[in-house]
Specification:
The protein is of the alpha+beta class and 382 residues long. It is built from 12 helices and 7 strands. The chain has a 3-stranded antiparallel sheet. α5 (139-147) crosses α6. It is globular.
């Protein structure tokens, strides 16, 4: 925010009130599905509590200045006095009715297994918001997904239906999402998608992708929740996160890099933590480098996972060597240099046979050609 933005957020109206426009999602009571009311400290209260001043927790989806103070996406919920809500304007969400209806239902279901479930985690099991979809996914992937939806989030309780779109309709929708978010479409070019970019990175930092893979496969990081190839983490299925081996097909490089750096900036309710803080890189035993270098390495690995997997796939465990040939007990064949006991006459060598006068059949022999028989009339040579 600029100094002018801060100054503008401190301006009061004729009634002495400051204004701010919040874009996001008001909290919902995880048991009733109705609006959540809390006191100024965030402690839940009943709607008819006459003593406490009711506030509505608000999960931001867009950064905003409130009384000159920046409130950012991914930070603590903004506590909005209910009085301010009633005095101002508020607009309902576009869509999402089914997700809000199912919110308390899936929480109640999960509590039977996990009494300590976090209410915000339930949003990850429901149909996701489409905010920022265009800058998140690759348009080509979205086109294919709309035509033939496939599971993405293992913990989701619903699957996207197949709408039987025409290809042109799917293209129009994919392009629409990209255009709304100012992203390139229908095709994107990003140097980080070129294999040469990884080759350059590995030349300056040997073990670039291998080090990133050590982070992915460390039990404190990615594989704690994410599916990777044929590996599925043990534990509660509701804690499973999307498959990483297809990230290169689905997501844009910029989004992947920024998402790893701070997931809640892009999905406020996500349970994924900041694994690589900007001031505290992961263990140097996994990847020797700064936080930025580690983020770049993870992004490169995920955007080139298919190439990395092929490069490191060994077929030795699958290929079977042919059995050794058994020695033969038969007598060795004669050498090709062996001379025959009697020469075989040919058309140009050996004695000319004696042929009586008349008509006869002669077979002409040649070492490089098949035998040919001819019937000829000859004068006798006897």
């Amino acid at each position: 925010f600029t100094p002018a933005n801060v100054e503008g957020s401190l301006v009061t109206d004729r009634q002495g009130r400051r204004k701010a426009t919040l874009v996001g999602m008001p909290a919902i009571n995880p048991e009733s599905g109705k609006p959540q009311y809390v006191d100024e400290d965030g402690v839940p209260i009943e709607e008819d509590d006459a003593e406490a001043v009711p506030h509505r927790p608000f999960m931001l989806w867009k950064d905003v200045l409130v009384d000159g103070t920046p409130r950012i996406v991914g930070g603590p919920n903004v506590m909005v006095p209910n009085e301010a809500l009633e005095a101002g304007r508020h607009y309902p969400a576009n869509g999402g009715d089914l997700a809000r209806l199912l919110f308390p239902v899936v929480i109640a279901d999960e509590k039977e297994i996990n009494p300590n479930v976090k209410p915000d985690d339930a949003w990850g099991w429901l149909p996701p918001p489409l905010v920022g979809e265009g800058r998140k996914v690759q348009s080509g992937w979205l086109h294919k997904f709309l035509l033939n939806p496939a599971p993405i989030r293992p913990a989701a309780v619903l699957r996207m239906p197949k709408f039987n779109f025409q290809s042109s309709e799917a293209s129009a929708l994919a392009n629409y999402f990209a255009a709304v978010d100012g992203a390139d479409y229908p095709y994107i070019y990003d140097p980080r998608l070129d294999e040469s970019s990884v080759t350059t990175a590995e030349a300056t930092h040997p073990g670039h992708l291998e080090g990133a893979m050590k982070i992915v496969t460390n039990n404190n990081y990615c594989v704690k929740c994410h599916l990777v190839g044929g590996y599925s983490p043990p534990g509660n299925p509701k804690a499973l996160a999307p498959q990483l081996e297809v990230v290169h097909e689905r997501l844009r490089p910029d989004y992947v890099h920024n998402w790893i750096a701070n997931p809640k900036r892009y999905l406020p309710y996500t349970g994924m933590p900041v694994n690589i803080p900007f001031d505290k890189p992961v263990s140097q035993d996994l990847y020797h480098g700064t936080s930025d270098q580690q983020l770049d390495a993870l992004t490169d690995l995920l955007m080139h996972y298919d190439r990395f997997a092929k490069r490191n796939l060994s077929l030795d465990a699958y290929l079977k060597q042919p059995p050794a040939a058994e020695p033969s007990s038969a007598q060795p064949a004669a050498s090709i240099d062996s001379s025959p006991s009697e020469p075989i006459p040919g058309p140009t060598d050996g004695p000319v046979p004696t042929i009586p006068a008349g008509t006869g059949s002669v077979t002409l022999l040649h070492p490089d050609r098949p035998a040919v028989s001819r019937t000829i009339a000859v004068a006798g040579s006897d």
